[in-house]
């Protein structure tokens, strides 16, 4: 049994003394919460009731809360793997379509449309996801998303002409946008503060896994086969989500208090700390229910402050060239090792580095805070890009320098390492943490749509930048963007590691000064 489910008597007494007021407001929710409340009210039979509560809690937790939280997160993570496969699919699709034996022939213009078609609807998908999250729930939004994901991949697999491929790419791209906010919000609302950073960082790991799988399968299989295999991911997501509850936060917001309590205890166990957080959640729900829905919520610092910070984070990530540099990674790898190196091998080496560092990012996010990783990642990313830019510039002036090919390779690997441990996973992780309870779906939808708009702008402008500014000029620009964005994030990014979602919301309202002071966080 998880040790959190059997706290010692001193801890119980300390929690009792701190939360007497909260318990009085929520004594009518259910038997478990009632027992907890009575113990907080100084009942003469406190000791026996508390003992009975803990015994019941111990008997009810057959699997540790961590196991259940991992199970709850597995559905969103599997669906996100399909998003990664969507992003990596064009890299294996286009070479096969351009082959002389291809049953579907394409020209250069059609190839560019295939590559960009998935990116076009991603921002729209994020906005629609915010609506689905609030109307149908976090869990159901993902089940709804999985259905068109299956249809999109099936259309690509069955395609006999370019139009079917484009339609399939558009649908899967839309689903990538739908998946982004839903996965982060659901994981954030079902996980314990101790594990939330690790589980949210696994979303970016899932993207890396999806890229790796798509490129690996495409190296050995036909593009149609890869598309059919990709159908398995959204199917598996539906199967996994059947066995987990809806987000307790969403259920509480909609007034389903008993279901919210059951879902919360299923995910978090029956520790006194968990009951304390549930009490705060219910209290917040009663406050939301008494408020009139108006634009004043959107003008609250609890909403616009995290919205600005997360938008800045996403823009910094995209304008650090995370996707643009990837397009040149294979050529840099080939130039370093030699022209005889197969481009698929070079691509798999880069994917492996990215995958390994995504695993490292999950571990680091669990151990360290968001702020230290952001600072290290932004500075390391900037230094790597400036180093790569400097080498390309000097080698253009002095061709003999080009023989030192290990330098750009080292800069490239350094870039992948630093950008993957911070700038890539953390904005996605914090999207599921920083927005207020009543507007979490809307906030995550807006911020992730900004991310995909920035993604589209960077990818669209990168060819022109490398033409008119040369690659060294483009890389220098991306490096400066990473450094400037990192400085601003250093000033304003709060630390959320180990904090409950309510503590984070209170911080942005100006009621969480202790959270800020304890973590030396930004000045928001």
TrEMBL record:
Q: InterPro entries attached here? A: MFS_dom, MFS_sugar_transport-like, MFS_trans_sf, MFS_Trehalose_Transporter, Sugar/inositol_transpt, Sugar_transporter_CS
Residue span(s) of domain Major facilitator superfamily (MFS) profile: 68-497
Q: What ranges does the record list as Low complexity composition bias?
A: 1-11, 18-28
**Renumbered residue ranges of the record's region Disordered:** 1-28
Membrane topology recorded in Swiss-Prot or TrEMBL: Multi-pass membrane protein
List localization entries.
Answer: Membrane
According to the UniProt entry, its GO molecular function terms are: transmembrane transporter activity
The record's keywords, sorted A to Z, are: Glycoprotein, Membrane, Transmembrane, Transmembrane helix
| Broad class of where this protein is predominantly found | membrane
Q: Where are the transmembrane segments?
A: 112-133, 140-160, 166-186, 198-220, 226-244, 307-332, 344-364, 376-394, 406-429, 441-459, 471-493
Any one GO CC term of the record: membrane
The family database entries (Pfam families) matched by this protein are listed as: Sugar_tr (PF00083)
Protein name as it appears in the record: Major facilitator superfamily (MFS) profile domain-containing protein
User: Native species of this protein?
Assistant: Ignelater luminosus (Cucubano)
């Amino acid at each position: 049994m998880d040790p959190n489910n059997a706290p010692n008597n001193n801890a119980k007494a300390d929690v009792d003394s701190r939360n007497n007021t909260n318990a009085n407001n929520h004594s009518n929710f259910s038997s478990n919460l009632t027992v907890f409340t009575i113990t907080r009210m100084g009942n003469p039979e406190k000791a026996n009731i508390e003992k009975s509560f803990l015994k019941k809690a111990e008997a009810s937790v057959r699997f540790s809360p961590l196991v259940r939280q991992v199970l709850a997160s597995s559905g969103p993570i599997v669906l996100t793997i399909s998003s990664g496969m969507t992003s990596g699919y064009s890299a294996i699709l286009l070479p096969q379509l351009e082959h002389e034996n291809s049953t579907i022939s394409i020209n250069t213009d059609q190839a560019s449309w295939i590559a960009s078609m998935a990116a076009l609807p991603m921002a729209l998908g994020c906005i629609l996801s915010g609506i689905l999250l609030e109307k149908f729930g976090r869990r159901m939004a993902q089940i709804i998303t999985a259905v068109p994901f299956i249809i999109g991949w099936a259309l690509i697999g069955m395609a006999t002409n370019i139009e079917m491929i484009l339609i399939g790419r558009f649908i899967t791209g839309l689903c990538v946008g739908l998946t982004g906010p839903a996965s982060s919000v659901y994981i954030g609302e079902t996980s314990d503060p101790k594990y939330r950073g690790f589980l949210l960082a696994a979303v970016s790991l899932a993207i890396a896994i999806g890229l790796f799988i798509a490129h690996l399968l495409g190296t050995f299989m036909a593009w149609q086969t890869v598309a059919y295999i990709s159908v398995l991911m959204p199917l598996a997501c539906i199967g996994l989500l059947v066995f987990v509850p809806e987000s307790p936060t969403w259920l509480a917001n909609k007034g389903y208090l008993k279901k919210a309590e059951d879902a919360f205890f299923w995910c978090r166990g029956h520790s006194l700390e968990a009951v304390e957080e549930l009490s705060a959640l219910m209290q917040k729900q009663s406050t939301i229910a008494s408020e009139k829905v108006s634009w004043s919520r959107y003008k609250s610092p609890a909403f616009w402050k995290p919205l600005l910070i997360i938008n800045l984070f996403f823009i910094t990530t995209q304008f650090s060239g995370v996707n643009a540099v990837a397009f040149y990674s294979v050529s840099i790898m080939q130039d370093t090792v030699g022209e005889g190196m197969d481009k698929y091998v070079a691509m798999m080496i880069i994917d492996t580095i990215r995958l390994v560092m995504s695993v490292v990012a999950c571990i680091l996010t669990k151990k360290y805070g968001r702020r230290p990783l952001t600072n290290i990642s932004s500075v390391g990313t900037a230094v790597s890009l400036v180093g790569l830019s400097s080498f390309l510039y000097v080698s253009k002036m002095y061709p003999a320098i080009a023989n030192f090919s290990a330098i750009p390779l080292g800069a490239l690997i350094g870039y992948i390492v630093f950008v993957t441990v911070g700038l890539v996973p953390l904005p996605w992780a914090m999207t599921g943490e920083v927005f207020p309870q009543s507007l979490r779906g809307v906030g995550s939808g807006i911020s992730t749509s900004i991310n995909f708009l920035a993604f589209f702008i960077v990818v669209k402008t990168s060819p022109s930048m490398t033409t008119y500014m040369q690659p060294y000029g483009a890389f220098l620009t991306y490096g400066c963007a990473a450094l400037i964005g990192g400085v601003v994030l250093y000033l304003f990014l709060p630390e959320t590691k180990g904090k409950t979602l309510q503590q984070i919301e209170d911080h942005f309202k100006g009621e969480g000064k202790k959270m800020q002071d304890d973590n030396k966080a930004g000045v928001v």
